[in-house]
Batch of 2 targets.
Target 1
Amino acid sequence: MNRAQRAQLALLLEVAGTPKPGNVDRRREYSDLRFEHFLAGAVGAYDGLTMAVGGSRLGTAFERAVSGMAEQDGGNTQFGALLLLMPLVKAATDAELTATAASRVAAETTVADAADFYRAFEHVDVAVGDPPSDLAELDVRRGAAAIPAIESRGLSLYDVMAASASRDGIAREWVGGFERSFDAASRLGAAVGPVPARAADVFLELLAAEPDPFVAIQHDEATAREVSKEARAALDGEIDPESLAADFVAREINPGTTADLIAGGLFIALERGVIRV
Amino acid sequence: MNRAQRAQLALLLEVAGTPKPGNVDRRREYSDLRFEHFLAGAVGAYDGLTMAVGGSRLGTAFERAVSGMAEQDGGNTQFGALLLLMPLVKAATDAELTATAASRVAAETTVADAADFYRAFEHVDVAVGDPPSDLAELDVRRGAAAIPAIESRGLSLYDVMAASASRDGIAREWVGGFERSFDAASRLGAAVGPVPARAADVFLELLAAEPDPFVAIQHDEATAREVSKEARAALDGEIDPESLAADFVAREINPGTTADLIAGGLFIALERGVIRV
């Protein structure tokens, strides 16, 4: 299995972990966003992941991965996970898979990578928060229409991530040394049992440790904090994780960023050989 | 998504369908053969599937697919499905995806393809039935050791399949015009609902229609016939398919050939566009 395939397997193992309260997993899904959309998303993302391993520019590889991922009817399945995987895959290929090397890959992205990133939003609708009003012309939802503004300001993809790190959990990884992804990998390696069960356990741990930024966007900060408390209660045995999963689905609470971090952690753990399937 | 990716997606959708009584699916697994082994098997099979699309000899592509599939700890996950997919993938690439074209691909296999097929058994333990005593030196469980006997007899892979068609359901497809695979594809196209649900429904239909050869090998012909009757009862609403699934797992009844036929049918149906994800 090559590196791009390990990244693909990380996407598949992430969605196989159950219960991951609030997210699509192999036992829970939404009528319009189902388990098989994630399978097809992982299959379709492969060419872009291969490009990242093959030395393509990060932005080019990312846009290709998203375009392939989007060839299914469920909409956005793994946009955030792929954005997190790209610097990890490139670091593993160019240097070694460390937080320092991944941060260097992130820091070395260019304006062209930023343009590709904006183009990727043309392939799929991604739920994101509103940017501050002074950054409205950089709103990712403008897609390719925002590229002239990016270019005239000379913003690299790293700059774009830095500008949204306060709202977006993946951007925070990019500018914060990929701390939570590597933490997830360590936890996955230290956990016991089959890999999908570990993924589910570590998902709850990460969710309990920090409010999910996507829940904050979807609902509000208070809900995101409440969700973290509920995850803590599930870890402490006060709530059955299966009940919590059903409850989150009913309340449309989707801690999607935490799921993305699990995908990143799974890739690191597979790459380092601390988990195996 | 390219053709090899559609074949890979067919493998993933097959195992996502639930309940598929007696087989690993996303809700049921065995302690040593789990859902994630099938995910990793599908990821690992991709290079061999790509070789089949790229014009490699069928045997070469098959051996590569099996070798990649086997890079996980669960053992044999998709050997039979890959053996069924290979002539279908090559027919779609070289001509068109019809039963006639697939049968021509099968008929045109060579002694070298047969040797590759035997080599594939070196990568993974596959449960097969005993050959007739006069064919003992061709027993696939001998792996590469049987190749001199294959070569001295000048047997093509098609000849090998023809010799085991009475016991093996995939061999029967190879020499019988891939009738059940194309039937499965039609049924999948005609069914309603999400693709994994269709796969589960058509699995029961195929199992009810014909005893599973793998169950006959694993247990005996009488058990295989009984299993078909129980599948019929589930289709008729007399048995809850979920109970039947739990019951088959407890009795270690694995209608694996029927699952392989579903994978073949899913590929044909994806290729023809009669199902989509």
Target 2
Amino acid sequence: MALLGLVTAGALASFARLADDAVNAPDIAGRLTLTRMAGGSLTHLDELERAVADRGGDLAAAAAPFLALLGDLDARTTPRDWWERLIRTYIAGGMVIDLQRAMSEGLDGSVRTLAQDALVENGHADYVVRTLGPVIEVDPQLAARLALWGRRVAGEALSLAQNVVRACPFPEGGADDAETAVAALVSAMTGGHARRMGRLSLTA
Amino acid sequence: MALLGLVTAGALASFARLADDAVNAPDIAGRLTLTRMAGGSLTHLDELERAVADRGGDLAAAAAPFLALLGDLDARTTPRDWWERLIRTYIAGGMVIDLQRAMSEGLDGSVRTLAQDALVENGHADYVVRTLGPVIEVDPQLAARLALWGRRVAGEALSLAQNVVRACPFPEGGADDAETAVAALVSAMTGGHARRMGRLSLTA
């Protein structure tokens, strides 16, 4: 149940972040693209609600603690311009998906399938690489600033992961299991981060 | 084509307004409800894009001028609290739909059908009446403030309508036609406004 709450919170946070990015897009074509991606974040909401209800729960209550943690992440990474905004959503959004995917690995069939289905790529990463990549290539100063900013966002996402694990018993085992699992989580998230920064030729 | 641009801009503006309302909702259940309504604003976007493309146009370019006007409306009606925010979306969203509906009346078959399909109720009005109605009933001071605020929002929506008509030749006829048509438009919008305020027992 906790994981379904986390995935729901992740969808709502991704929706809100992309919707806010859309309004701040420098042109209407970008606004349209990001608006559609935001809408796409909600695709699995009805399924998540049914799955939580089947387990006797309430979607809003299940999502609430994680939504607060995800809101903190956004509040602690206020972008100063459009490029920092693109990087924030790219890095934070990607790492939150890494986190959810890693946490769903250990679960039983139906929840795992639903959680992983809900984490499909929405095309945002490709959009960022396509629009920001060429700009970074010709502006080393911007590249340096965004590399620093990417590390800052990644640091906040790793703090978030620790808070999520604290709020969401993971896995259901002893302290040794938990330690190993958290190490695997951090490794999945930092690996994903390095890969994403690499796609933009930025140092992770 | 201009009307398809207006309807697209209306959908994008409604999406952005509801997404912003969702993040500001006082509880997670409200956030979920408003997030879903925001997502619902995009239902007809693909159809609108096809219809504009069929006419040799580009959706973003068609929507751009109206999106700027709708953004002005939002910028000129910044809510000071949650209740003003609910009223802003209720009144402005409703009047923009009244405007689009009235403007689509005079059009030919397929555009008219598409435009009117895209203007379906998303349940926001009922949501506002359900959540705000009981609060207003026991707080005459709040009711007075919101009545004033509703008039302010309605005034801005009527200014918007004049700017839209200026940007979107309507109808395709002489100056006399235009004057009659604009009068019908204002009458449809003020009628809708009075009805919406009435549902909350507020003076229009």
